[in-house]
Amino acid sequence: MTVLAENPVLQGHATRLPSSAGVEALLAAANREVLVMSTLAVAARDPIGGVRRIDHENLRRGVRYRVIVPDTARTAPVLATRLGTLALSGADTRTVPDVPTDALVIDGSVVVLPVDRTAGGPALSTAVFRLSSVVTTTMELFERVWLTAVPMSPNELPDAAELSAREKELLALLSSGSTDESAAARLGVSVRTVRRMVADIMNRLGARSRFQAGAKAADRGWLIERAGWS
Question: How far is CA 104 from CA 32, 76, 127, in A?
């Protein structure tokens, strides 16, 4: 595909956008839906996956947002704050273990992709594509990933990124083989409360099973030993 340095509205060509300002201008023109797929491989000024003021403004005027980010976003305090606030504004956010690429789709007609990415680092700029084949391919990839992603609760705000003492104790009990009933008895709470706590921890970790939650918790240092949950 040809990358042009001029005229950002030429149909069927890619136009280089050297800064996030150009992306924000495109977002300001959104009318229906914005799709965001972000690897979170770059810092806060990420031109594709960053949370911007224009995103909140779009949500207030009725533009739908669907966002896919890695599971690690659930336990990154600063990022959890931004994504939680965006979710409270109405964005539908989901996570997966690994996001395949960075991409932004606006109203099903414009795609923004990173270009000139440094080795292991951020994209130096982005390019806008209006070619129907590029738009269709990107949207199909997004939809495939979306179907496998786990919803991120709108109330997942920064204080939810860390475990309380009781949650850590529950994790230790379950990882050592305790049943929900015996864990409830040890903690002095109901079985329903234990299951609610487990569900909350799984949601925070983006886990699809108790076993996966145990592995993810161990990776984050929340368990002394790596163990699955029974």
Answer: 14, 22, 10
Evaluate the CA torsion angle 130, 133, 134, 138 in order and state its sign. Answer: positive
pTM: 0.63
Is the model more confident about 15 or about 4? 15
Helix H, strand E, coil C: the string for 33-55 is EEEEECCCCCCCCCCCCCCCHHH
- Strands 150-151 and 123-129, by their bridges, are unpaired
| pLDDT tens digits, one per residue of 191-223 | 988 888 888 777 777 677 777 777 777 766 666
Identify residue 225 by its one-letter amino acid code.
E
Rounded to whole angstroms, the Cα distance separating 97 from 59 reads 26
Amino acid occupying residue 151: P
Strand order in the sheet with 3-4: 3-4, 14-17, 123-129, 110-117, 103-106, 33-37, 64-70, 92-96, 150-151
Q: Contact 68/74 with Cβ under 8 angstroms?
A: no
Radius of gyration (C-alpha) of the chain in whole angstroms: 20
Q: Which residues pair with 106 in a beta bridge?
A: 34, 110
The pair of structure tokens assigned to 17 is 């956008």
